[in-house]
## 1
Amino acid sequence: MKGSEVKPLGNERISGRIIRHASEKSILFIFDTGSKRSSFDVCMAYDAGFDVVVLYENVTPEDAERLVQDALFSRGPRRSRFTSFFIGGKDLEKAEAVLEAIKNIKVPRLVSSIIIDPGGAYTTAAAMIAKTEHALLTSKLGRLENKRCILLGTGPVGRIAAVLLAKLGCKVTIASTNPNRLNGEEYIKEVADLLLKRYGVEIHGTYAPRHEEKTRLLREADVIFCVAAPGIQVIDESILEEIGNGKVMVDVNAVPPPGIEGIKPEDDMREIYPGVFGIGPITIGQLKCRLEMEILREAKETGEKIYDYKLCLEMARNLLRRPN
Ligand SMILES: NC(=O)c1ccc[n+]([C@@H]2O[C@H](COP(=O)([O-])OP(=O)(O)OC[C@H]3O[C@@H](n4cnc5c(N)ncnc54)[C@H](OP(=O)(O)O)[C@@H]3O)[C@@H](O)[C@H]2O)c1
């Protein structure tokens, strides 16, 4: 584990002088369970107003426990609430293990906030679902919880979105369309089993790498979420031609080519094909960024919540009720 302070681009030099300067300064510790630093979360944290951001890599649950205790004890009752922890890294399981290790650390009169958002998946999935719910209602297409939903992609965003949708009461299928997967059938079964074991949700898993399999799958769906890796086109026009109408398609891939042929980044229920309405990645991304900013600002001020994927969805819904 290696930790380092990421300095703000201001005039003030804080390194090594936190105590002297920081009678009530806000500090965010980012625990990355991997080795790739996310400049995204660091920038968001400074823009949200944190005075200091300290980033640790390759953090294990044991490391996190010790780091949290040290931070809280050093800051005492007055300042602990201005001390927040952000669990990142790409791996959902590792991030959840870190949360488990630190969420029950209770030191009398010391409170702090914990944000968990591995690979941006919790804020992205929450923004995607809140936006889709809202779009369906405002377009008079009914409630999301009554829909048959399909997620194309089994990365962190696809998995957490599947969990949230299943908890809403949707009929959910998660699919790998990745032609490069070895043992695709086995892999997707493992994903569905893991989601059942870990989150208690029944999700159907399927492997659909070819045109005919994707088409068959999408014909049965009302709402389709394209959550595959950046720059991968999963649905092309020949598929759109064959799957029928009355569908909503959401794409979170902002790197060209789009995940769904013909969708534009800023689409917001534009008819991308006759009877098919699209929501694009910038529309989702804007809400995701507003949500992350809101979480960071609130955590910085109030210091006593755990911001997990469920709270992310609640907060994303609230943001949609408020003007920008
Ligand atoms: N708009 C926003 O604000 C925002 C924010 C965060 C993330 N994102 C985007 O959300 C998407 C999902 O993020 P993530 O972190 O969950 O993604 P990820 O882990 O990078 O990739 C998701 C899945 O894409 C699938 N994939 C890879 N190559 C493929 C291929 N050739 N054909 C079909 N599928 C392929 C993989 O296999 P399987 O299909 O077998 O799973 C992988 O699990 C990404 O495009 C990311 O850039 C957008």
Note: Confidence is low (pLDDT under 50) at residues 8-22.
## 2
Amino acid sequence: MRWSGNLMREINGDGFRRWYERQLIGGFSFIALGLLLIVAGAAFLEVWLGHESATVDLLSAGLAFVSLGSGGYCWVKAAETIGAAEHLAQQAVCASCKAYGRITCQSERHERGSLTLFVQCIRCNHPWSLTL
Ligand SMILES: [Zn+2]
């Protein structure tokens, strides 16, 4: 995952809520970019199917594949980014004082594809962990 090693610094830098907002903005930007690329890919596909000449066919086929592939990748990245942010946000409520997103990360542990963040409530100092 792209924020391995940076997640703790990112959350502690601006706070969890700002981090979460940035993830959502990034995720929805990927959705918008993916949509544009898929529309462009469909346009290139239409030019390709028009059979103007061998050169235009080859060029538009290549551009169609690149655009559609990149658009699909953007949507996968969007789902991954938004999904991870939502998953962490659901765990970011303090069990002791019910404060949402008022956390500082104390440490993180990576093992076999999962990430555990050990956090502490800013308001009441209650410790717990978030897993991704
Ligand atoms: Zn608390």
Note: Helices lie at 7-14, 16-49, 54-91.
